[in-house]
Design a protein that fits this description.
Elements (H helix, E strand, L loop, with lengths): L3 E8 L2 E10 L4 H14 L3 E12 L1 H13 L2 E4 L3 H10 L6 E2 L1
Parallel strand pairs: 2-3, 3-4, 4-5
Antiparallel strand pairs: 1-2
Helix pairs in contact: 1-2
Length: 98
């Protein structure tokens, strides 16, 4: 079974969601729940720290795109695995990378 650690914290005017591990069908709900909690915290810029993401499949990509449609989301230090997926699917230009 895949493992994913998701941490939510506030940094200045940003809500940061940090993910470590594998983002796939079995773990995607953890990230979706974190995004929902971040939305409820109100008005802050949402940043996904994806430096520790070792794998991301289409289910993970779907959650990222859905979060992007709800508002601005920036990717902090996207891992090589996430960068490859975004490039392969032609979705890299939908996200700001910081």
């Amino acid at each position: 079974m895949s493992q994913l650690t998701v941490e939510l914290r506030t940094e200045y005017d940003r809500t940061v969601v940090e993910v470590v591990g594998e983002l796939d069908l079995s773990t995607v709900q953890e990230l979706a729940d974190a995004f929902e909690r971040a939305d409820r915290s109100g008005g802050r810029t949402l940043v996904l720290d994806a430096s520790g993401l070792t794998f991301c499949d289409s289910a993970g990509l779907r959650v990222l795109i859905e979060a992007r449609h709800r508002g601005a989301i920036a990717l902090r230090s996207p891992s090589d695995a996430l960068r490859r997926l975004l490039e392969l699917t032609g979705t890299a230009d939908r996200f700001e990378v910081i």
